[in-house]
Amino acid sequence: MERQKAIELLQKIKGEDLRKLANKYDVTVFKDGKKNKGWAGHTIEHYLGLPINSSQSPNFGSWELKTISLKYLRNNTLAIKETMAITMIDPYNVKNTPFEDSHLLSKLKKILMVSRIWVDQTEPSSLLYGIHTFDLGNEELYNQIKADYDTVRNTITNKGFDKLTGKMGVYIQPRTKGAGHGSISRAFYARAPFLKSIVVL
After folding, report:
1. φ and ψ at 42, to 5 degrees?
2. CA-based angle 113:83:126, to the nearest 5?
3. In this structure, are residues 168 and 145 in contact, taking their beta carbons and an 8 Å threshold?
4. pLDDT tens digits along 162-196
5. Dihedral over Cα of 196, 197, 199, 201: its sign
6. Consecutive H or E run containing 153
7. Are 70 and 80 in contact (CB under 8 A)?
8. Lower CB count within 10 Å: N or C terminus of the chain?
9. Sheet strand arrangement including 64-72
10. CATH number of the domain to which 164 belongs
11. Domain tally for the chain?
């Protein structure tokens, strides 16, 4: 499916409640009291007719589908709720792969991002807020993301995988990903300043 076709399909459900769509497509939101953190993305993938994808290749071959959450602050303005996971960090792969050939770059080259309104932890509803596109063509942005990647790569090479910290990176940070605080898995995450360049609120 071409990205433009996906945009047209998503425009048709803009403003709709993704919880209702999740029920329609039998997407599990809660099971045994635990939330499926990816339920909104899975719902959108079902709507677009795409099998759930967790590979390091872009969802649709040439472009990547991402979902992010927005929340209302006390002053009733919208803000980005949290950072966004991009792709897992395989230490061997990152250590031996320059940015130009990396999974990170392939994920960021061409993005279709869907933003949704987060209400609270119980997810009573979640309106599809907007559809946003991003192409990594800005030279300054490209160079900074490359620098962030190289920081991670150099740290793995010279200090070790366990020395990665979420304090690294201007736009892209390496953070733990997985169940519990004892998780040793790490992924590349997009920081809020980067997300704000895509999602104009």
Report:
1. -65, -40
2. 55
3. no
4. 999 999 999 999 998 765 455 688 999 999 999 99
5. positive
6. helix 139-158
7. yes
8. C
9. 78-80, 64-72, 110-117, 128-135
10. 3.40.600.10
11. 1
